[in-house]
Amino acid sequence: MRTNRLLPLAAAAALLVTACGGGGESVDTGGGGGGGGDNVLVAAVSAEPDQFDPHVTNAYASFQVLENVYDTLVVPSAEDLTMQPSLAESWTTSDDGLSWTFTLRDGVTFHDGSEFDSADVVYSFKRIIDEELSNAYRFATVSDVTAPDPRTVVVTLTRPTPNLLELIGSFKGMAIVSENAADELDLQSEANGTGPFQLESSDANATVLTTFDDHWGGAPSIDGVEFRYITEPTAALTALRNGEIQWTDNVPPQNVADLEGDEEVELGSVTSVEYFYMSMNYAVPPFDNRDVRRAIATAIDRDEVTQAARFGAAQPNQTAIPEGSPFFLEYAPFTPDQDAARQLLEQAGVQTPITMGLMVTDEYPETVAAAQVIASQLEPVGIDVEIQEEDFATWLDRQSEGDFDAFMLSWIGNIDPADFYENQHLSTGGSNYQGYSNPQVDDLLTRAATEPDQAARKALYDQAAQLIVDDVSYLYLYNPDEVQAWAPGLTGYQVRADSAIDFANVELP
Amino acid sequence: MTQLPTPGATPAAPPPAEPLPTAAPVRPRWRETLGLLARNPTAAVSAVVLVLIVLVAVFDETLAPDGPNEQDPSLQLQPPSWAHPFGTDEFGRDVFSRVILGAATSLRVGFLSVAFALVVGTLIGLLAGFYGTWVDDVLMRLMDVLFAFPAVLLAIAIVAIRGAGPANAILAIGIVYVPIFARVTRASVLGVREEVYVRASRSVGASDWRLITRHVLPNAAPPIIVQTSVSLAFAVLAEAALSFLGLGPRRPDPSWGLMLADGRGFIEQAWWYAVFPGLAIVVTVLCFNLLGDGLRDVLDPRQRTLMAGSGR
């Protein structure tokens, strides 16, 4: 899941390439086609996919492509991210909640022409479970996946799992591949899915998809998609203005305000489910002291951080889940107040000034910007922030070794509250690098995971979230906007809060 | 100015019972050099500007209206105005203050790295040039190895090994310039070593130490001085390059190269963010170079005679 966090950050990577030229091409786009053909959508993304095996990769750059190549049993709706039928037409749950029966869609074919049936689902899920691939943890409560007939799949569970649909459908890491695909194909570079586009080729310059005419949802109106990699946001924007590309998610945040009135560029923006946070190491005094952490949370002005890091293209938030989600919790106990922060530090009995190393990475430049604001806000209350800018590999090493006072990053692509909290705040959570341990939170999260009633479930998560915020396990900062830009006249595209990129219904001008 | 020796403020005083004045009277010579330099307008202006920059760097905290990381979110990316002559950056920090505070960083790295290169390089060049034979071979081949690397690449490699930060930037740039000073010094020493006054001094039993300090080094110095000025220009530039690449001072410490790197992303919205730190680099580097050119003219004995003779 860390993987998934790779995405919007790259959009802000404003530092590395020159502002001019998206590759030195000057293409006459007579009609809106790009370099890729008359009716091919040319999309600029910031990074090259590492590989195309949906069950193995963790890179957002890969999922940008795979979103258009594979399908899942269920899929989050573009509007509110609730789970909708996709390859499964309908499903029922047994009374004890321990068995889910999915009825599969008829008339679905894979890119190679073979029929889609329940054996493909069983193969795909068992591949993830048996080979312990990236997302095996999503099947933690699954005891078996069976196919009583070609149109039916039964998932049996060890305990009720109300969020099973989110677990198996929230992104293409749970894609359905054709039976034995891993033996017949090199999934690292080839694909055989049921999605609207087929993987044609991929090299260091671009990944090319062609339209799959027999797609169950109807063939796309465009002939294909060419993903080009443009790291520098300013260059991507220039390429869009020149007509070399027709779509990009690599928009410099500082340009967003200007672009809103720009006739050469259409801008789409939604508050995403991504959240940026700062985390302090419970193993390093004085950050093990709750009052010290609360003092820091009180000294930080999230509006200012958001303004400098995102130029306002974000919603400050003291919790993780963005406003608009059914699981949003309106809870903002901290009001920026430096006197109160000083008092808390005094109460904690620590000798100021304290030095705090704040680890950020230039791979996600907005963390570097936010850190400078945080440093200036903490200085007057007696906390000297030493900004430690690391390359991402070193950053990850130091994080997993616990070699930090504090760090800042984001989580992206979470839909269900379990995804927001379990891994990060359970005592045993795999991503609980800060070392948070609160038995009450553990109990609430464990109960919430098996609570079938949605309202009761939300109440449990709300209680857990309040404790997490109060204890400052994470110091939540903001939910960034997912900002994308495209050529005027391009229709049928919708910016999604989960940052998935779906070109199936796009029509070029 | 005349070529006559004018010892100090008491020219009428009879020569005391001292050893005869040496061939190169030290004090009059540097005065004369300064006088010649003052009549070269480009060099003179450069020197004055550099003195101003150094003063700015020394009194930076007094001169800068704001602190280095003093932020005001309501003033994000404001264009130049009376309150903020160089505008503000994305944190609402005063670019003018940060350019002033960045001068100290740039000059400190520049001076210290060149000082390191000067001391180490001159020593190596002196030893190699004065003793010749295998000492020369060993030392200069070592310098050739260092010289074989492109300067900035070598600096980046050193910083990559030792980690980013101002101290390592100084060391890295210093090491890069050692071979240049070693070569210049050696070439100059080779010429001076065979001069009559050196051989004469040696024949009356002067020690190596005395020969080097009293005769060889002073007379080999002019090219080294010119090289120092030129190297300062390159060192300031190298510091900016390393900072630009994120290998120098850490944010939020002000540094011209870092400001240039950060400002580049905003060139469409806020030209002032990158332009003023860039100008500061250009002016400083240009002045060091022009001063170096002026010094070269003034310190070259033939040029010097010409300039003095023509009264210009």
Automatic annotation (TrEMBL), chain A:
Keywords: Signal, Transport
Top-level taxon of the source organism: Bacteria
PROSITE patterns in the record: PROKAR_LIPOPROTEIN
Gene Ontology biological process: peptide transport
Signal sequence range: 1-19
GO molecular function: peptide transmembrane transporter activity
InterPro entries in alphabetical order: Peptide/Ni-bd, SBP_5, SBP_5_dom
Residue ranges annotated for the Solute-binding protein family domain, each copy included: 83-431
Stretches that traverse the bilayer: none
Cellular component GO terms, alphabetical: ATP-binding cassette (ABC) transporter complex; periplasmic space
Matching Pfam families: SBP_bac_5
Protein family: Belongs to the bacterial solute-binding protein 5 family.
Protein name listed in UniProt: Peptide/nickel transport system substrate-binding protein
TrEMBL record, chain B:
Feature: compositional bias, Low complexity: 1-11
Localization (cell): Cell membrane
Keywords per UniProt: Cell membrane, Membrane, Transmembrane, Transmembrane helix, Transport
Entry annotated with the keyword Transport: yes
Membrane topology: Multi-pass membrane protein
Chain ranges passing through the membrane: 37-59, 109-130, 142-161, 167-184, 224-250, 270-292
Region of interest called Disordered, as start-end residue ranges on this chain: 1-25
Entry GO CC: plasma membrane
Biological process, per Gene Ontology: transmembrane transport
One Pfam family recorded for the sequence: BPD_transp_1
ABC transmembrane type-1 domain sequence ranges: 103-292
Assigned protein family: Belongs to the binding-protein-dependent transport system permease family.
Protein name from the UniProt record: Peptide/nickel transport system permease protein
Organism: Geodermatophilus amargosae
Lineage: Bacteria, Bacillati, Actinomycetota, Actinomycetes, Geodermatophilales
